[in-house]
Structure formats: C-alpha cells, structure tokens
Amino acid sequence: MMKGQSTQNNQVKYEVADIFHRYGAEYRRNNGLTRKQHYVMNAVERCRTSWYGYHQDKCDQCGYVEIDYNSCRDRHCPKCQGVSRTKWVNARLDDILPVPYYHVVFTLPHLLHDLTSHNKKLIYDLLFSCASQTLLTFGQDPKWLGGEIGFYGILHTWGQKLWQHPHLHFIVPGGAITKNNSWVAPQHRSKFLFPVHALSKVFRGKFIEGLKEAHSTAKLTFSTETRQLESVGGFEQWINRLVARNWVVYCKRPFGDAEQVVRYIGRYTHRVAISNNRIIDVQDGQVRFNYKDYKACKKSWKIMQLNAQEFIRRFLLHVLPDGFHKIRHYGFLANGRRKTKVQLIKHLLQIKPDKEKKELTDDWRMGCPKCETGRLFPYMIVTRFFSIMSSLAMCCERGYGKCSFDTS
Question: Per mean pLDDT, which range of 116-125, 159-168, 182-191, 236-245 is the poorest?
C-alpha cells in the first residue's frame, strides 16, 4: 500500500511545502536568493514525494507492508526532524548525570539584526564563542564552582513571528570538575547556577570586543542599511548604542529527573523556524499561523496573518550557512573527551552503571493498521537513483537500531 503524500500527521492541514508550491515561483522571480536558500526551498517542496524515492515499512507481527515516499532530510524542513532528534538524544543518554540541570539562554539585541543578515556565520560563531566562554569563566571562578563545567549549546535564530531573534539555548549540568578531580555542586542549587546580570555584562563585553576585532580586520560585510558602519567613526557611534542596550541572559530553575532533562533537550535540538502544525490557513496569498505571545500575562496563543511572500522571506532568513554546526558541546561534554570525563564524574558521584540502555523512542514506529497489534519497522529503501538499501542498513542509517523481524 502506498501512503499519500504528507500523511505523517493527519491533523496537519497545511504545510510550509504548500506555501512554497503555491507562491515560491513568484518569490524566486522577484527576489535574489542565495544558492543555499534555493536548495532549501527545493528540498522542502519535494520532501516525501517521488523525487526522493520511496521506502517500505513492514509489520513485525503480521508481515503487512506499507510504502511511503522518502524525506529530504534537510535540517530546515519541518517534516524531517523527528528521526534526527531521536538519534541525537539517544546518543546523549549515557551522558545524563543525576544532578540538577539548568537552561541558560543568551540573546543578541535587535540592533544587531541588520548586520547579522549579511554576516551570519561570523555573528553566529561569535555568539557561540562569547556565550560559551562566559559560562566556562564563571564555572572556573571559585566564588561559584571553581572547576570545569560542561554543557550543550543549541542555536535558534527565530522568534514566534519568524522575525530574526538569534539566541542560544544552553543545557548545563549543575556542577564542575576541579583540577584535583573532585566534583563541586552549585552553592545555590535550587535557585540559580550563576547570577544572570553578571553573566550579561561579561557576555556583552566579550561580544563587543569580538565585533571590534572583526571590524578592524575588515571581516564584516555591510549592506545598504549598514553602510554607515564602514567608517571607524560610524562604527564607534553604533557600538556605543549597542553597549547601552539590554543584553538578555535568562536562566530557568533546575529540571526534575533525568528523563525530564532528556525530553526537554529533545524539544530544543532539532527545531525549525516554524512547525507545520502551527499553520492554520493558506488562502488568497495570505498565510495564517499560531504564535505564542510571550509578552502577554499568561503567554497566550494568538493568530498572525502574513502575505505569503513575506512569510517566505521570513522563513528563509533562518537558513543557516553550509556546514554550520547549530549544536555544539563544551567543557567536560566536549567531543573527544566527553566519555572519559562523564565516566569520571559518575565514579565521583558513586553511580552504578546501568546495564539496560534506555532509549527515547517517541513512537517513531507506527502501529500496524492491519493487525493493530504490531509495529511497522523499516524494511527496504529505494533512493531517487533507484539504488536499494537493505532493511538493516536502513535501520542503522535512520538511527533505529536492529530490526526485530526476519528480512529474508
């Protein structure tokens, strides 16, 4: 049985792909797009169509086979993040520690948005560098922890209305490893990790210095709107305005148990600018979608209406540069040393190894519509070039582990 296109979630009535199909050609004609933006639009439009080939899923109980189109697997596509998210989170499960976890957010001021549009890689790299160094510096301060902390950083570039809103989400285990290999817990465990006002000042200072260096070495690209910043005088005046702005750093209270931490991390790692289930209606050149109003007292959901051309423009603002890493690991959770450091911390905390490896599944295995008791597992994939991948290879590629049925 071949499933219909875009039927992963039957409750989704409209998709970003529908908007691109209807109004994308006009947008391409009237606007200059980068090569990457062209690629993303094409990928989203063709996702789960015959363009990418198809795959078969087989029931592990009755043998029922269902056929569906392949996805584009682009990180900007609203339909392609489930498997990637589950695979990434499952790879982090061994790193979860029985300590309080904190969610720290660093946000760039609106005054930087025009400059960011033409210097994405430089600004986003600088954001990662300055925010992470700020946290590491506070961790090393004996006043707070006096050791090396570890954390994940996840870049989001959008707000609820799809405007530019570059900010970093850091998931930080509460504690640090000292130079003599002992574990230090936070002083104010139940309230905060580090004082946010002090974090904000240090972060602002590091970022401003990074901008000044980029300007002095001619690494910044200026548009018509930011042309006045090319001169030394104009740039210094702008920097003074930037320093006077409020640089927001926010830290939530610690999470509950380890499972809550894993679920929470999963919600942030592979988000895109807008999910399909937020789109309400696409008619007469207008797009209506839900957004959460964080300024309202109870953070209520409201409805936004945009011209389709403006919707596409805002969506494409958040296309990341080629090869840019939007998830980064730091401190004792940095790649290459994470396994050794986590084992040391678990030893210090006297944690016994868990023989049963747990995984976050999120019901990626669809229930069988025929027998209603079994689960559908990947069986075979046929690419757009008609090459065939075996069921076991497909399961490993998609992060599902070994299939539980005989594929002979």
Answer: 182-191
Encoded amino acid at 12, one letter: V
Give the pLDDT of residue 189.
66
- The DSSP output letter for 224 is S
Can you give the pLDDT at residue 299? 74
Tokens found for residue 130 = 């300055």
Q: Which of 51, 67, 37, 19 is nearest to 378 (CA)?
A: 67
CA 256 to CA 377: how far, in whole Å? 33
pLDDT tens digits along 332-350: 999 999 999 999 999 999 9
Cβ atoms within 10 Å, residue 380: 18
Picking from 254, 253, 220, the residue whose alpha carbon sits closest to that of residue 235 is 220
Provide the whole-model pTM: 0.88
Greater confidence, 319 or 402? 319
Question: How many Å apart are CA 321 and CA 330, to the nearest integer?
Answer: 21
Strand-pair partners of 331: 150
Instruction: Give the Å distances, CA to CA, from 392 to 55, 66, 281, 332, 406.
Output: 13, 17, 40, 34, 10
Provide the mean pLDDT of the chain.
87
**CA dist 153 to 104, 135, 138, Å?**
9, 11, 16
With a CB cutoff of 8 Å and minimum separation 6, the contacts of 309 are 23, 26, 27, 30, 285
Is it the case that residue 355 has pLDDT exceeding 70? no
What CATH number does the domain located at 82-273+317-348 have? 3.40.1310
Q: What is the pLDDT of residue 386?
A: 62
Distance CA 248, CA 284 (A): 39
How many angstroms separate the CA atoms of 67 and 126, rounded?
A: 45
CATH 3.40.1310-classified regions of the chain: 82-273+317-348
Q: What are 231's two structure tokens?
A: 């001169």
Secondary structure of residue 402 in the 3-state scheme: coil
